[in-house]
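Run log // design_07
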């Protein structure tokens, strides 16, 4: 099973284009972000990022995977908002 937090970190790297920026956004160290991305790549069996000078660039696999990952994260966020309202309405 893929960890939702790891997917959020992956999307932060995609959106920011940087491990350092994603780490800042997620409240992690750059090393922790790199470990999460490494775990996800091993889990999926694909390479999501390639070196690009002093930066990284997402592969086509990363961009394709990001579409589905974003759908899942967005749906979970919608469910969390719903469940908060649901519980409050029942009290």
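design_07 sequence
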């Amino acid at each position: 099973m893929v960890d939702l937090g790891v997917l959020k970190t992956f999307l932060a790297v995609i959106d920011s284009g940087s491990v350092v920026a994603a780490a800042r956004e997620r409240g992690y160290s750059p090393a922790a972000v790199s470990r999460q991305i490494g775990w996800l790549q091993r889990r999926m069996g694909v390479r999501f990022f390639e070196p690009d000078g002093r930066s990284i660039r997402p592969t086509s696999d990363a961009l394709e995977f990001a579409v589905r990952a974003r759908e899942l994260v967005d749906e979970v966020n919608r469910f969390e908002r719903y469940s908060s309202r649901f519980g409050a309405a029942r009290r």
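The CA atoms of residues 83 and 89 lie 10 Å apart.
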